[in-house]
Amino acid sequence: MALGTKDRILDATVGLLRRQGYAGTGLKQIAVTSHAPWSSLYHFFPGGKDELVEDALMVAGRRYESTIDRLFKESRDGAAATRAFLMLSVHALERSEFADGCPIATAALEAASTSDRLRTTAATVFQFWVNAAAAKFQSEGLSSTRAREIATFALATFEGAIILSRTYKSTEPLKQCAEMLERAIRAEIAARPRRPRKGQ
Amino acid sequence: MALGTKDRILDATVGLLRRQGYAGTGLKQIAVTSHAPWSSLYHFFPGGKDELVEDALMVAGRRYESTIDRLFKESRDGAAATRAFLMLSVHALERSEFADGCPIATAALEAASTSDRLRTTAATVFQFWVNAAAAKFQSEGLSSTRAREIATFALATFEGAIILSRTYKSTEPLKQCAEMLERAIRAEIAARPRRPRKGQ
């Protein structure tokens, strides 16, 4: 089934944000890329560029969230799932010849000090991802606080590794971080405080 | 001594890149912020915006490099130095009310797929930093390859933690990553392959 005009506009916006960020993405380019009539941009997003970008970040954020959720639920443990998630991005970068970064991170970095609306949208999306990963770490015996700290650490390393891999045009930083993160998380989980077993 | 016009232009450019990135920073704003006559921008940077931004990234990159170099040389070990480096950014974010990110990362993310010149400049700068940190890890007995992998991991986590901290307007992600990185690096160094001692 062909996508409706609104979905096409949102998809095109996500794609452009991944490649060139917020300031570099103009409404005209979005209209051309999505084959949408100019008037439909204002019809669907009367608030203009910020409303459109906010919706696009939320759409992209929910998609990644279900990927994370599925991956972490299906994986043997959270450490392996984290590694697998970074390896997904290795393939995405290779497929797109290093053009496709994380749409949220780019917009977040640019907009953090200029648009509070986009900043809070990006923060909400990051929280979705942290929650999805933290659930797995909690199921492995970590406290909710510790589980969220480890998920935050993994997300930070992931986002930074994407920056380095795109900058170097090499997937090595992502692969190295995937391995190192897996080991670090495994060590954190092995070192968790154990509740005394009954009878001890 | 007052800065010369060229240095003022470069300083203003670094400051604007940290706050709003490459695409969001116009030559006019740079001229206004640096109190430089419009004509001097073209006098000092005849190649225009890309030449100016390239020089600014290199200036900022060298400054951070000497900070990293000093910090790693003065610290007890590489793990503690890494933590101390992240904590420096906690203070920089607090001082600037979360406006000042890493000038290199923002420009790198935006320009990775649109300007090969800025991309390679950012890659060169990241390599300076990795080398400065890796020297310390090597002095702790790691192979040159392993030392660079750990420095790359630390840099990725640092850059990602800045994104999260700016997005959340909270220094918690940076602080959590500083602790977690220190532990992870300490474990990597403890697990390094030991050369057999003489006579064994």
Radius of gyration of chain A: 19 Å
Sheet with the most strands of chain A? none
Q: For the residues shown, what is the average pLDDT of chain A?
A: 91
Distance between the termini of chain A: 61 Å
Which two chains touch over the largest interface?
A-B, 48 and 48 residues
Indicate the multimeric state.
homodimer
Uncertain parts of chain A: none
**SSE order of chain A:** HHHHHHHHH
Q: Give the fraction of residues assigned to helices of chain A.
A: over 70%
Blueprint of the fold:
Two copies of one chain form a homodimer.
Chain A: H1 5-20, H2 27-33, H3 38-44, H4 49-74, H5 78-95, H6 103-111, H7 116-139, H8 144-168, H9 172-190
Structure commentary:
The structure is a homodimer of 200-residue chains. The first copy, chain A, is 76% helix and 0% strand. Chain A has a domain at 54-190: Tetracycline Repressor, domain 2, CATH 1.10.357.10. The mean pLDDT of chain A is 91. Chain A starts with a helix and ends in a 10-residue tail after the last helix. With 200 residues, chain A is mainly alpha-helical. Chain A has helices spanning 5-20, 27-33, 38-44, 49-74, 78-95, 103-111, 116-139, 144-168, 172-190. Chains A and B meet through helix 6, helix 7, helix 8 and helix 9 of A and helix 6, helix 7, helix 8 and helix 9 of B.
What attributes does this structure have?
homodimer, 200 residues, mainly alpha, Tetracycline Repressor, domain 2
Short summary of the structure?
The structure is a homodimer of 200-residue chains. With 200 residues, chain A is mainly α.
